[in-house]
Design brief:
- The protein has five helices and five strands; from the N terminus they run βαβαβαβαβα.
- It has helices at about 10-20, 30-45, 65-75, 95-105, 115-125; strands spanning about 1-5, 25-30, 50-55, 85-90, 110.
- A five-stranded parallel sheet has the order 2-1-3-4-5, with helices on both faces.
- Helix 2 (about 30-45) runs parallel beside helix 3.
- This is Response regulator receiver protein.
- InterPro entries: CheY-like_superfamily, Sig_transdc_resp-reg_receiver, ST_Response_Regulator.
């Protein structure tokens, strides 16, 4: 399986990669614009991402906008199954949660710092973690 980490903070990228590297082939990008490009390329190569871990607050294109662009591509190009997207953020803001779940169709939401156990629980709920 393949995962994409979308995170502008170096330490967060490193930690998330260490959590996922035994479960997924992991790619890393640093902003939402690169995430959308990586998502497109993965489909062109016929090797899509099953999981995307995306920070909300990033330069250039934020995580919410990138998620909206990804979901629009999935819809227009009939890409199935849809990628499971876990949004990550340092903000514990209920309005942001509502926007990412209902407007952006996020699969899950984790407040930073991301703990391995919490991430693995979410992966299990999403059917991405073998028991």
């Amino acid at each position: 399986m393949r995962a994409l980490i979308v995170e502008d903070e170096f330490l967060s990228r490193k930690v998330l990669r260490s959590f996922l590297m035994t479960l997924f082939d992991v790619d890393i990008v640093v902003n939402g614009r690169e995430a959308v490009e990586a998502f497109k390329l993965a489909h062109v190569e016929k090797n899509p991402y099953e999981l995307i871990l995306m920070d909300i607050m990033m330069p250039e294109v934020d995580g919410i906008e990138a998620l909206n662009r990804i979901r629009t591509m999935e819809e227009k190009e009939h890409l199935t199954p849809k990628a499971k997207v876990i949004m990550t953020t340092a903000l514990d803001d209920p309005q942001t949660v509502i926007r990412t779940f209902y407007d952006g169709e996020a699969s899950a939401y984790i407040v930073k710092p991301v703990a391995k156990e919490k991430l693995y629980r979410e992966l299990e709920k999403l059917g991405l973690l073998n028991k």
